From TrEMBL:
PROSITE patterns: PEPTIDASE_A1
InterPro entries on file: Aspartic_peptidase_A1 (IPR001461), PEPTIDASE_A1 (IPR033121), Peptidase_aspartic_dom_sf (IPR021109), TAXi_C (IPR032799), TAXi_N (IPR032861)
Taxonomic lineage from the root: Eukaryota, Viridiplantae, Streptophyta, Embryophyta, Tracheophyta
Keyword rRNA processing attributed: no
Keywords noted in UniProt: Aspartyl protease, Disulfide bond, Glycoprotein, Hydrolase, Protease, Signal
PANTHER family reported for this sequence: ASPARTYL PROTEASE AED3-LIKE, ASPARTYL PROTEASES
Signal peptide: 1-21
Biological process, per Gene Ontology: proteolysis
Family: Belongs to the peptidase A1 family.
UniProt-recorded Gene Ontology molecular function terms: aspartic-type endopeptidase activity
Active site: 120, 329
Keyword 4Fe-4S: no
Species name: Thlaspi arvense (Field penny-cress)
Protein's name in the database: Peptidase A1 domain-containing protein
């Protein structure tokens, strides 16, 4: 348990972003010490939003969702246990395909170096580009960690248990003296890979200081999907932030993702037991021993309005051998169902809304916004928890506002896909609590932006 002082500091840190957004000061201002905001990567407070977004929310979402297919391929590779360092063509790191959907401020080293890391709950580790990295982004918005400027930095030797835990690890079988530095290769995002050293330094999150935190220091990279300032993995594996901070945060965290419409505001990440909602409904968190980092829930059905959609449960049933089932993910933009499931939901939705229907990008059920008032509520049924999606999590509007689209989709071009993914658009303005020690996930409505 963290001390009560820490609890107090931490709690007030969590309230502060909410207070600030209602005052007249710049919502992006931060003194770097008390902010655990979750910032949409294209929003004003993100360093990656170079220009104010010129297009509409729809344009932004479609642009971001264009990377979903890579993300789904990546998630599928995770569930299939086929994760190995990918052989990928070296592409210019400046033509970034995708830099993640949300970023969080975190600092490494002493004195602390601020990084805007991509939040990824389906990945275990924390890793950042390190100075001198070859193949890492050279964009003006990229940043790397400079080990030489930190007095608390150290490397991790190959002979440690921690090195053994690092996924993809390869140490020389003969043990030289002194033992070599722990290094590992990893693939990420469906088209990228990197080579990193496992290192330790102080991690500062809001007012919390974690000494001797282990993370990957990227020395070389290829592909276009690596976050420009690093990744904060909140998966459940032994190297993850959650696993390394067990005594401080008890393995519990929650987030509230802001609406893509809220250009100025941000959501929040709450680490630890303090400040978590008391009134929240839970569904069991399922574990897949083959891929322990993913957060699986038991989706048992879907209702459109008052109609329970007839679904072939084969496509919903959790199976740790095949990886089939449903996960909650922070790196996919649009909720995706395996094709037969999506088609059944779409059929029922179209029955209840007046057509004609047209397609816009990933969305194939767009209709005159005038008919929006008849759009039915979609409910995701999970064990012990029915999640009625707010209408803003179900519909998205065209730039001109004349069309509304069902903001979900089937899994593109992959008839063998087995994984349903509950994604960002459907999670906005909900607090989702990940409680791995008690094997449960809580969901409550919350206006977080
Ligand atoms: C990582 O990949 C690079 C390039 O393929 C290779 O030279 C290196 O030996 C690999 N390192 C580890 C630790 O597997
Ligand atoms: C999921 O829910 C169904 C229906 O209630 C139940 O039969 C099944 O055992 C549950 N699966 C898991 C893995 O809990
Ligand atoms: C459900 O889908 C599986 C896999 O495609 C198929 O084998 C099975 O016959 C289907 N069940 C029903 C009731 O349609």
């Amino acid at each position: 348990m963290a001390s009560s002082t820490l609890h107090f500091i931490f709690f007030s840190a969590l309230l502060l972003p909410f207070t600030l957004t209602t005052s007249t000061r710049d919502p992006c201002a931060s003194d770097g010490s008390d902010d655990l905001s979750i910032i949409p990567v294209n929003a004003k407070c993100s360093p990656f939003a170079a220009n104010p977004i010129s297009g509409s929310v729809m344009d932004t979402v479609l642009h971001m969702a264009s990377a979903d297919s890579h993300r789904l391929t990546y998630l599928s590779s995770l569930v299939a246990g086929k994760l190995k360092p990918a052989s990928v063509p070296i592409a210019s790191a400046n033509q970034l395909l995708h830099t993640g959907n949300y970023v969080v401020r975190a600092s490494l080293g002493t004195p602390s170096q601020l990084m805007f890391m991509v939040l990824d709950i389906s990945n275990d580790a924390v890793w950042v580009p390190c100075s001198g990295c070859s193949g890492c982004s050279t964009a003006a918005t990229a940043a790397s960690f400079a080990p030489k400027l930190s007095s608390t930095y150290s490397t991790v030797s190959c002979s440690t248990a921690q090195c053994t835990q690092a996924r993809g690890l390869t140490c020389p079988s003969s043990s030289p003296s002194p033992p070599s530095i722990c290094s590992f290769n990893q693939s990420y995002g469906g088209d990228s890979s990197f080579s990193a050293s496992l290192v330790q330094d102080t991690l500062t999150l809001a007012s919390d200081v974690v000494t001797g935190f282990s993370f990957g220091c990227i020395n070389s990279a290829s592909g276009k999907s690596l976050p420009q300032q690093g990744l904060m993995g909140l998966g459940r594996g032994p190297m993850s932030l959650i696993s390394q901070t067990g005594s401080l945060y008890s393995g519990v965290f929650s987030y509230c993702l802001p609406s893509f419409r809220s250009f100025y505001f941000s959501g929040s990440l709450k680490l630890g037991l303090a400040g978590q909602p008391r009134s929240i409904r839970y569904t069991p968190l399922l574990s897949n021993p083959r891929r322990p980092s993913l957060y699986y829930v038991n989706l048992t059905g879907v209702s459109v309005g008052s109609v329970q959609v007839p679904l072939n449960l084969t496509y919903l049933t959790f199976d740790s051998n095949t990886g089939a089932g449903t996960i909650i993910d922070s790196g996919t933009v649009i909720t995706r169902f395996v094709q037969p499931v999506y088609e059944a939901i779409r059929l029922e939705f179209r029955k209840q809304v007046k057509g004609p229907f047209s397609t816009m990008g990933a969305f194939d059920t767009c209709f005159a916004a005038d008919n929006e008032n008849v759009a039915p509520t979609i409910t995701l049924h999970m064990t012990s928890l029915d999640l009625k999606l707010p209408m803003e999590n179900t519909l998205i509007h065209s730039s001109a506002g004349t069309l509304a689209c069902l903001s979900m989709a089937g899994i593109p071009q992959n008839p063998n896909a087995v994984l349903n993914v509950i994604a960002n658009l459907q999670q906005q303005n909900l607090r989702i609590l990940f409680d791995a020690p008690n094997s449960r996930i809580g969901i409550a409505h919350e206006t977080c932006n």
